[in-house]
């Protein structure tokens, strides 16, 4: 079973080919992508209109390149999977239209995939783990805990009520004049900083649920920076490192504490092989990984972080999710809608409505 997957929901245009042989694990035959960082760089964020045009220009290029890398033509493909939401609607429409065109021209089945399901199923692609597992999706746009019980069966335990951690890292970098993306540059600064000098808030830790909040952290950092600037006329290298270390420590502790709660809820299901898997760009952060790893060790769960190229947006995860859905018998028609919003625990298939 060989599936071509397309992804265009944010600022990466990507195509991939994933194959599964009977009785074997899935294999990525090709995975290519065109990032749009240089197109949006001047604007300080992704511009939806620019993103949609760039996707429309690059989707066919990606498909041709992925098929070429896999050494296949469309005759070697069994199904076409595409991100049908959630995401920036212009980009999602570009991908869905491209997939419909390919499906119409070839007669191949079309499968609309929830982008978040793509992230959430990635540990099955990389490590073949069994349901149920606990998933922490932590990226520039998302932060949520999910229990994955099946390919279309996810329970959301909680998540951020405002900013996502990646967004907070990016804003912190901007406030301190560090390069984008903020995650890696803040992490590098934090390595030689003192995490105890600034004590930033750890919101919602007094609540028993799995919800998180990161917007207050950014405000506290802004205040600390402004106070230093007022007192000293600027920031020293050490100030910057200490601010980054204090910020990162607050994120690490918040995620560790809420992960402990989420694991407690998940372990109540008595999973035979307990696993916490992470996805999203923020999972690249070593301090965050170490924090999550030690909570897992303490609670008797395996910690699983797929390779970073599969943690951030990619089409291999969409092709793989399509493969799992195909095996479940999921097929979509030409009425498959592109959905800007599509909560993962809304298990209704994409064709059930436009969903806003
Ligand atoms: P989404 O895919 O959820 O819509 P996105 O495309 O912004 O959002 P990703 O590509 O998964 O998310 O990840 C990018 C985010 O990860 C950025 O916000 C970036 O700052 C953050 N990030 C990358 N590396 C690190 C790191 N080492 N530490 C913390 N954050 C990081
Ligand atoms: Fe994503």
Automatic annotation (TrEMBL):
The UniProt entry, under Pfam families, shows: TsaD (PF00814)
> Cofactor binding mode, per the note?
Binds 1 Fe(2+) ion per subunit.
Q: Name one cellular component (GO) term.
A: cytoplasm
Indicate where this protein is primarily found. Answer: cytoplasm
Domain Gcp-like residue range list: 27-320
In the record, what terms sit under GO molecular function? iron ion binding; tRNA N(6)-L-threonylcarbamoyladenine synthase activity
Instruction: Kindly list the places in or outside the cell where this protein is found, as annotated in its UniProt entry.
Output: Cytoplasm
Q: What class of enzyme is it?
A: transferase
Residues annotated as binding Fe cation are: 115, 119, 313
Chain residue ranges for the region called Disordered: 339-356
Q: Which reaction does it catalyse?
A: L-threonylcarbamoyladenylate + adenosine(37) in tRNA = N(6)-L-threonylcarbamoyladenosine(37) in tRNA + AMP + H(+)
Q: Which domain of life is it from?
A: Bacteria
Q: Which SUPFAM superfamilies match?
A: Actin-like ATPase domain (SSF53067)
Could you list this entry's UniProt keywords, alphabetically sorted: Acyltransferase, Cytoplasm, Iron, Metal-binding, Transferase, tRNA processing
Q: What InterPro entries does this protein map onto?
A: ATPase_NBD, Gcp-like_dom, KAE1/TsaD, TsaD
Residues that bind substrate, according to the entry? 137-141, 170, 183, 187, 285
Q: Which cofactor does it need?
A: Fe(2+)
General function of this protein: Required for the formation of a threonylcarbamoyl group on adenosine at position 37 (t(6)A37) in tRNAs that read codons beginning with adenine. Is involved in the transfer of the threonylcarbamoyl moiety of threonylcarbamoyl-AMP (TC-AMP) to the N6 group of A37, together with TsaE and TsaB. TsaD likely plays a direct catalytic role in this reaction.
Q: Identify the PANTHER family for this entry.
A: TRNA N6-ADENOSINE THREONYLCARBAMOYLTRANSFERASE, TRNA N6-ADENOSINE THREONYLCARBAMOYLTRANSFERASE, MITOCHONDRIAL
Q: What is this protein called?
A: tRNA N6-adenosine threonylcarbamoyltransferase
**Gene name, Swiss-Prot/TrEMBL:** tsaD
